[in-house]
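Suppose a classmate hands you a notebook page containing two proteins, each written out with its sequence and a corresponding row of C-alpha cells. How would you begin to make sense of it? This section walks through that situation. The first entry is reproduced here exactly as it would appear on such a page.
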Amino acid sequence: MSDFSFMERLLDGVEVEFIKLNDLVSLQRGKRLVKSELNELGEYAVFQNSMTPLGYYHASNVSADTTFIICAGAAGEIGYSNNDFWAADDVFSLKVPTHINSKYLYHGLLAQKGKILSQVRRASIPRLSRSAVENLVVPIPCPENPEKSLQIQAEIVRILDAFTSLTAELTAELTARKKQYNYYRDKLLSFEDGDVEWKTLGEVSLKSYSGGTPKAGNPTYYDGGTIPWLRTKEVKFSDIYETSVKVTQAAIDETAAKWIPENCVIIAISGATAGRSAINRIPLTTNQHCCCLEIDPKQALYRYVFHWVSLNYEKLKEMGQGARGDLNSGIIKSFKIPIPCPGEPTKSLEEQERIVTILDKFDALTNSITEGLPREIELRQKQYEYYRDLLLSFPKPDEQVA
C-alpha cells in the first residue's frame, strides 16, 4: 500500500482543522526553584533550561503525560514526560483538553521544530517568547467528532511511538556498550600485570606538525580549493576522512598551512577542544591549533597511541595553561605512554596490535557513524522523521482539492 493510500485510509475522508496552539491548549509557565531547594535524587525531576533534569524536588507542579517546551537556555527543545515533574520558569507546559492527545501534540510540535527554533531570539541567553509558542498551528483531524479525532490521533501516536521506542532501546544498548568499551580500555591499558617501558609521545614519534589558518575572506586561499583543511572543532575522538573546509595550493605555498601525512595522531591544543584527539585517514592540512604526531611504526602503532591519548583526555586537558587552558606541542610531546614488552620490539608491536584489535571493535560499535549502533540509531531516527512528517503533513484548506 502506498503512503498516500495509507493516509487516505487513516483519515477516511475526514476534515482537518488547523488550530493555533493558543486556542487549543492552556500554556502554563513554571515556577523557579533556588539551588538550595534541589536534591541530587528525589521523587520529581526538575526541568529548567534543558532536557536534562536540573535536580529533584519533593513536589511536582505538572502532571504526567504532558508535553513541554524549553523557553530559555536550550530554547525550542520539546519534551514529553511520562511522570509528574516540576517545571521551572524557563519551561512552558501544555495542558490539553480532553479531545487532544498530549503525545499527538508532542509529535506534532517535533515536526515543527525547525520553525520553532527559528523563533528563538539569540542573545546571551537564547529565549523563546510565549507568543511564538502560542501562534504555532497544529492540525486536528475530525474536529467535529472528538471521539473519532482521538482515535486518529491515537493511531498516529501508536505508529510514531513504535519508532521512538526502538530508538530508545538502541540508545540504551549503545550506552551499555560505551560503558563496556571504557571498562576494557581501562583494563587493557592499565598493564597491572605486565612489564612496560614509559616513553614520551615525542620519543615514539618521527615528527610533529602544526599548521596555520589562511587569511579568512581571501578568495585566493579558499575559492575552488580541493585540499582538506582541518579545524579543531572537527577533532572528535574519531577517524577523519574529510573536512568541511577546503583550501587551495596557494594557501599551502603562502601560509603556515602545510600537508600532514595520513595516520597521524592529532591532538587539539586550544581552549574548549584542548586534549581531544583523532586520526587523519587522509593526507590533509590543519589550523595552528592542532598538534599532529607522526608515530614511529617501529616503536608504536598509531592506533595504540590514539587509544591511549583518548583514554587520558581529562589528564591532558588538566595540563592546559592560561585563561583558556591551552596546550602546546611541548606539553603533548612530553606526555608519557606505556610501551609493553620493553626490549622486544616485535613482541611489543604484537601486543599493541592485540589491544588495538579489541578496542577498535568496541570503538566501531559505539562511535562509528557508518556501522554499529550509532548508524542503526541514525537510520531509525530518519525513519521516524519520515513517518512523522508523512502522518502529520495534512493538506491545508487551500491545498485540498474540491
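The notebook's second entry, a different protein, reads as follows.
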Amino acid sequence: MTSPVIAVGPDSTLDEVCDLLFTRGLSAVAVIDQGALLGVVSEEDLIHRAEIGTAAPRCSWWVWLFGNNTALAADYLKSHSVHVTDVMTRQVVTVSLSTPIDEIAALLEVDRARRVFVVVGGQVVGIVGRADLVRALARARRSLPRTVSMHDDASIRQEIVGALRQEPWPSIGETDVVVTNGVVALWGGYMSEQERKASLVLAENTAGVRAVDDHRVPLDIAYAMV
C-alpha cells in the first residue's frame, strides 16, 4: 500500500483538490477529518463541471415537474459547488491490514474501483490502487528464479502434468504431454482457443522448457474424424 495518504479536510475547496491532483500527478484525493475517512474526490467526480461546460444540460419543464427532485439537485450541486463535501464520493471501498491481496484485486475489479483505503481502528493508514498492484507484479517478476536448464525431461513432464491437474479447464490428458530434450509436444485436442493458449503458457512457464510444439486440434474436428 501507499502511505501516508494524501488528503484534504472537509473544509477544503475544489481549488485545493485540483492543485493536488495536478501537481502530485494523482487520480484522487481522500477527504479525511481527524483520521476518519469521509470520502474521496477523484477525477471521475470532476468530469461534469459547469466551469468547463460539461455539466448536465438544463432539463425541460416536464423533467423538472415529474423528475426526481433530489437527484436533479444533487447533480447541480456536484457540478457547481466548490466545497469538497459537496463534490466528493462518500461510498468508498475499505480494507484492513490483514486483507489478502487477491481479495483487494477482486474488489478493484468487481466494484470497478480504482483504489481501496486501508483502515485500522477507524483511521486511514494507507491506500492501495491499481498502480500499487502493478508495482507488486513488477517486483514479483524480478524476483522469479531464472530458468534452470538442468531439469531432465521426466521432471519437466511431471511438473507440467501436475500443474494441468490443478486447473479446472484443461482437456488435455497425461498421455498427451511428451518432453524430449526440453521441448514439450502437446497432443490431443482442446475445447477453446483460450484453453489452447492457457495450456501453452502453462508449459512455457515451466522451468527447463526450451520450446513448445502444439500438435493439438479443436475437439469438434477430432470428434468429426472419429
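A careful reader of the second entry would note: The first strand starts at residue 7 and ends at 8.
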